[in-house]
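Hey, I'm writing a tutorial for new members on how sequence and structure tokens pair up, and I'd like a real worked example in the thread rather than a made-up one. If someone can provide the structure for the chain below, I'll link this post from the tutorial.
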Amino acid sequence: MADNKNKAVLMTVLAGFLWGTSFPAIKIGLQFMDPYTFVFLRFLIASLTLASVMLLTRNQLSLKIPQKRLLLFLGMINGVAYLLQYSGMVDTSASESSLFVNLSVVWVALLSAGLLKESLGFKKMVGIVLSLFGVVLITTNLEMSSVGKSSVLAEFFVIAAGILWAIFIVYNKQFVKESNSMVRSMTWLMLFTMLPLLPILPFSAGSFATLPLIAWLTIFYTGLLCWVVPYYLWLEGLKHISPVTSSVVHLTEILVAMSISIVLLGEVLTLPSAIGGVSVIIAILLVSLTDKI
């Protein structure tokens, strides 16, 4: 039993590492295409890859699965969340975005208390307060005149994406319990993720043929190594640990995203933003490490 839990934690950390690399990759890709084209092509590649795996392994892509409504719900949430994240990241740094998205661990704690009847406890409550304090520092940089500007609105788009992913994380626990074929369920979830992305296709289709090589590299990288592989690892880990503990993966994301962004993108955090970032990381530790695995 302990070996299963240790393996689950390792898989979750590996998933977090790969997801962390997606933030600087997205910032690079957004230099060459609009966020709608990027997010659509990323998940088109992921969907086609999973469907190809199903065909190669001679699995039937049948929707005769017990949790089809849950998969539709999760897919729609996932698609909208990514639209919000990509739109927000146009005016938000990769480092800040990783912090905002990974506030989902705090929202998971709140949702787990409400939906799963898990106790919050003193440390989790302190973590929630610290996380909100950190968000205020990062979004305003102690310059209250900046409130209402496009960059702040973009930051709240990314925060909203994190809230949606908190719902996604909590309900994925039920998903992994009921799934009788992980790859088939992942394939259908990907196809359902495409549904909220389809309305934007007419506005982006004309730009596909003109994308440079580096744009396609970021599309394939984020579609395969920042979604298909880490999502599978994360789901396998979620079988043996709770949603709140699983969300410790987001701390890995933050560290990886910020390190790569500073080295490769030359991003620099101001002192208030740095203090806010530390507050968010401490909040995530308080919330996640006080949960029982």
